[in-house]
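hiii so um. not sure if this is the right channel but i have a protein structure encoded as tokens and i wanna go backwards to a sequence. like what aa goes where. can anyone help
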């Protein structure tokens, strides 16, 4: 299954050439991951407060295919690729209509309050497993 959100490109998202600044795609897909988790019932603030668990990006492999521009309406698509005991791998894309502008494979690790890798809490792992294709 995949999850999607929409967002509009604002002037502040663009560079001197009038296209989305490359680093802003990382912000866009972060929003997509956050909303994906939220829609599955994973409250990251509550998770941190209750157990100290947080997610940290470990790796991103990204391809910039076409530029987005001011006022474009974009769709951020997130799809679970791989789930392990302590790691989640997602495929993400930024689309404008049917056109794919950006793709990324993102690996996040679950960390404890001291920043050490740990297993995903059981409720989080269960929620993610429900999202499997």
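sure thing!! here u go:
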């Amino acid at each position: 299954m995949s999850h999607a959100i929409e967002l509009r490109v604002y002037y502040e998202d663009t560079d001197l050439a009038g296209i989305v600044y490359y680093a802003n795609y990382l912000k866009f897909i972060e929003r997509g991951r956050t909303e994906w988790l939220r829609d599955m019932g994973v409250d990251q603030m509550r998770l941190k407060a209750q157990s100290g668990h947080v997610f940290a990006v470990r790796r991103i492999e990204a391809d910039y295919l076409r530029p987005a521009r001011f006022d474009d309406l974009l769709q951020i698509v997130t799809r679970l690729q791989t789930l392990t005991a302590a790691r989640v791998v997602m495929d993400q894309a930024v689309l404008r209509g049917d056109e794919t502008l950006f793709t990324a494979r993102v690996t996040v690790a679950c960390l404890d309050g001291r920043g050490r890798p740990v297993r995903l809490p059981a409720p989080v792992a269960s929620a993610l497993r429900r999202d499997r294709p």
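oh and The first strand starts at residue 2 and ends at 8.
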